[in-house]
């Protein structure tokens, strides 16, 4: 049987290996949480990152500022102060954004099913309750971008659970769109907006993939309980990110999305504005 001291040594060795490969690491306590501030850093007296809201690493030698404590310096990872933390560590975490990565944290079977239907395949790592999908490229991290889905990248940490399987692919626009908040429209637009007619390469190959994507978008709008405006916009943005460049979206698809939004109380004008803003954000307004 592996003893606790062996497990903690394994964490240290894992952290040193990751740091050597350019992945910023930090120790985790039980419950998958970082170590609390030391007495020198209480109330951020050390000048550390208040509430970890400011980008950039902490200069404190203790691993007590969450993602901002993550480092690739082996002298820090294996320092006396950090070694004391490794003796109590329950796991290893890393700062994905610091390594130029984004982790889509899928917390349940429903979230995994959504990812398989909506996101390009990439490297996956099994978690206790779901999967981590890891993409090459960084973005702002955010929690609760949709049911059971968190984004771990810049200013966030993820638990290291192994290298995973599959080839890592580039961070797609559909993932970036999950954290985009709707901005106010800047000009009046027509009440009716046609679907884009782009000539790009078709990414879904079969009508079934597109129909399934539209059905899931309708469901996402229908299930919205709060911030319906933002949900509608983000859903439009996600649909256009995946299907807006190849010209396969039709007016019938757009009508289905508008109908779902209006059933939640959105006006035809707001639907039109949200669709137009999504087109503009993705550079498709003139496609």
Task: Give a quick rundown of the structure.
36% of the residues lie in helices and 14% in strands.
Which characteristics define this entry?
elongated, 287 residues, alpha+beta, 6-stranded mixed beta sheet, 4-stranded antiparallel beta sheet, 10 strands, 36% helix, 9 helices
> For the terminal residues, how far apart are their CA atoms?
62 Å
Question: Which structural class fits the helix and strand makeup?
Answer: alpha+beta
The string of secondary-structure elements, in order, is HEEHHEEHEEEEEEHHHHH
Low-confidence stretches: 50-54, 183-192
Radius of gyration: 22 Å
The mean pLDDT is: 81
- What helical percentage do the residues reach? 25-40%
* Tally of DSSP helical segments: 9
* Major sheet attributes: 6 strands, mixed
Which percent range describes the beta-strand content?
5-15%
Give the tally of β-strands: 10
Q: Which term fits the overall shape?
A: elongated
Structural overview:
- This protein is α+β, with helices and mostly antiparallel strands and 287 residues long.
- Helices cover 36% and strands 14% of the residues.
- The strands form two sheets. Strands 4, 5, 6, 7, 8 and 10 form a six-stranded mixed sheet that branches. The chain has a four-stranded antiparallel sheet with strand order 2-1-3-9, covered by helices on one side.
- β1 and β2 form a beta hairpin.
């Amino acid at each position: 049987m592996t003893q606790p001291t062996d497990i903690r040594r394994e964490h240290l060795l894992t952290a040193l290996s990751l740091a050597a490969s350019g992945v910023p690491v930090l120790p985790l306590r039980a419950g998958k949480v970082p170590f609390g501030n030391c007495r020198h850093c209480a109330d951020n007296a050390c000048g550390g990152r208040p509430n970890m809201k400011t980008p950039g690493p902490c200069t404190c030698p203790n691993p007590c500022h969450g993602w901002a404590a993550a480092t690739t310096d082996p002298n820090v990872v294996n320092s006396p102060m950090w070694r004391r933390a490794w003796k109590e560590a329950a796991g290893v975490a890393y700062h994905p954004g610091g390594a130029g990565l984004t982790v889509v944290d899928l917390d349940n079977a429903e979230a995994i099913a959504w990812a398989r239907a909506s996101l390009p395949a990439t490297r996956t790592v099994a978690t206790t309750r779901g999967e981590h999908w890891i993409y090459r490229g960084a973005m702002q991290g955010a929690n609760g971008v949709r049911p059971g889905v968190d984004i771990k990248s810049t200013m966030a940490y993820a638990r290291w659970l192994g290298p995973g399987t599959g080839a890592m692919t580039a961070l797609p626009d559909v993932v970036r769109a999950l954290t985009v908040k709707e901005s106010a429209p800047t000009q009046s637009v027509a009440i009716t907006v046609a679907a884009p007619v782009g000539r790009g390469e078709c990414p879904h190959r079969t009508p079934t993939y597109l129909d399934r994507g539209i059905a899931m978008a309708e469901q996402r709008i229908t299930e919205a309980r709060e911030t319906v405006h933002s949900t509608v916009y983000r859903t439009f943005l996600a649909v256009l990110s995946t299907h807006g460049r190849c010209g396969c979206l039709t007016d019938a698809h757009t009508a289905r999305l508008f109908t779902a939004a209006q059933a939640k109380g959105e006006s035809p004008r707001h639907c039109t504005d949200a669709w137009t803003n999504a087109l503009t954000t993705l550079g498709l307004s003139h496609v």
